[in-house]
Amino acid sequence: MCGIFGYCGQRRAAPIIIEGLKRLEYRGYDSFGIAVMDQGITVRKKQGKISLGASDLSRVKGKMGIGHTRWATHGEPNNQNAHPHLDCHDSIAVVHNGIIENYAGLKRELQARGHGFRSETDTEVIPHLIEEEFKGDLAAAVSAVLPRLEGSYALLVIATGCGEMVAARKRSPLVIGIGDRACLAASDVTPLLEHTERVIYLEDGDIASLSTGGIEIRHQGTRVKRPVQKIDWSLAEVKKGGFAHYMLKEIYEQPEVFSSTMRALKEEEIPDILQDTGGVTLVACGTSYHAALLCRYLIEEHCGIPARVELASEFKYFTSPGGDLVVGVSQSGETADTLAAMQKARMFSHPTLAVTNVLGSTITRLADHTLFMRAGPEISVAATKSFIAELAVFFHLVDRLAGGALEHSLGRGHLAIGEALLQDLSQAVDLCRNAQSMFFVGRGPFYPLALEGALKMKEITYIHAEGYAAGEIKHGPFALLSPETPVVALCPPGHAFPVMFSNIKEMKARGTPMIVLGVQGTQDLEEISDVFIPLPDGGIISHILASAALVQLLAYHTAVALGRDVDQPRNLAKSVTVE
Length: 579
Ligand code: F6R
What we know:
Elements: E1 3-8, H1 13-24, E2 31-37, E3 41-47, H2 50-53, E4 64-70, E5 85-86, E6 92-100, H3 103-112, H4 125-133, H5 138-145, E7 151-159, E8 165-170, E9 175-178, E10 183-186, E11 198-201, E12 206-211, E13 214-219, E14 222-224, E15 229-230, H6 246-252, H7 254-266, H8 272-275, E16 280-284, H9 286-303, E17 307-311, H10 312-315, E18 325-330, H11 336-347, E19 352-356, H12 362-366, E20 369-372, H13 385-401, H14 407-410, H15 413-420, H16 426-433, E21 437-442, H17 446-461, E22 464-469, E23 487-490, H18 497-508, E24 514-518, H19 525-528, E25 531-534, H20 540-561
Parallel strand pairs: 16-17, 16-18, 18-19, 19-20, 21-22, 21-23, 23-24, 24-25
Antiparallel strand pairs: 1-4, 1-10, 2-3, 2-4, 5-6, 6-7, 7-8, 8-12, 9-10, 9-11, 11-15, 12-13, 13-14
Helix pairs in contact: 4-5, 7-13, 7-15, 9-13, 9-17, 15-20, 16-20, 17-20
The structure holds fructose -6-phosphate (F6R).
Fructose -6-phosphate (F6R) binds next to α9 and α17.
């Protein structure tokens, strides 16, 4: 949830760390801090966003340092709780992403032994524990402390008098960058692109010592070599490129993302486990869950395989993992609940498949097979292009398993998204921006799209929005309908159309403003709509893709009209690495 970044090299570390943290800010943005080593350790911390308040930190001297941008879990976001955290003598500094579950007991023990604490965080126990073990070899001290920590961590540690920065991970991501006479470490690859395209993904349990002399990685006391991987994301992809927000840029990238994911998958073999399976269980969170839910309809219809879809966070409470094959869907590949679900599937000896956007992410190491989407780096907290890329992966699989049943429509998918991007949504935005509460409704594959539309709307506009299966609206939510509660109805042609049409009329009869997405000329859909948003002609695949882009854009423009912080909505973080 937080972002960590470290640098050790020939240049002044502080400005490099600050730029690195700015690229990680989407992971957490309530406070930030740096610790830089010169004669001793200089620490600077601040509440708020790094993009707004870090200019004076760049002057701190020193060529090695660590930094952190926080998404608070223990203790409110303020200067004391911001990382880095220090030991009693200000000579050991630690930044941490993750949660130390047994910190309360450790803190009591440390206090009893005379350690003074300055924050309410779980992290602060770590520098104090290292202080007790440190006898000049920092990596050895860290390695002695790690077995005492329960929970998850990606850690960077520096200590006065040590020319190395120590990195360690367990169930939280950490990537090492190999620069020109410099080593870097970060929560993900995006801040490393400015410095290098060569990275090493640390494994759980690895402890790395980084210095200008190179990188040494140990696992359970033994020196190990991890593969150096080349990142194929470009620096341009992590910049805004003239768009007002990353979210808008990422929405506009979707036609290309859809096509490039399709192109890349065509070259790949379908894993045998998919061809032979008698049933699948898909596990995911948030937007990825909606993508999985949508694809269930297509898998069952075209492949004749039973498909079950579960929220990854609930999966652990079921006694059986369900279908033969368990598929984890995660843009980041680091979502704690999805990883836990994959682990459970492995425990039950089920074959596993990961669908992810991030090479080297943890899910790729848990799964028997991985299918990569080609969305490129997604910076905005709200997932958009990764949703389209997830759909592309599933559409492709369904098509291959169903002997080319979708081939014709898939070739036109990018055009449908492109057409959607041209629509003027200003009238719909005017209806939404004044609402306190709203609904999104649909049937069949358009029900998960209704869920996704509502999720986008609530997360970036803060308007209370609920996604509902249209048939469920009469089972309770009808009581909430009023002229102040707009409803977005997804109503493309198809076998659900007649009943959706009746549902829209029923809602309209309660005075509810209706924003309807449909194809022009289908019955008198336009006449019964307050605002009608046309979908392109074409089949269900075109309608799904266009609807997805339209609900994203509706949320985006409404958020802009309300003056919201579109890319970094309050209380959220992009990568949810704690359960
Ligand atoms: C919503 C959003 C989240 C993520 C969810 C899963 O816009 O971004 O709901 O979809 O946290 O993330 P991944 O796909 O990385 O597992």
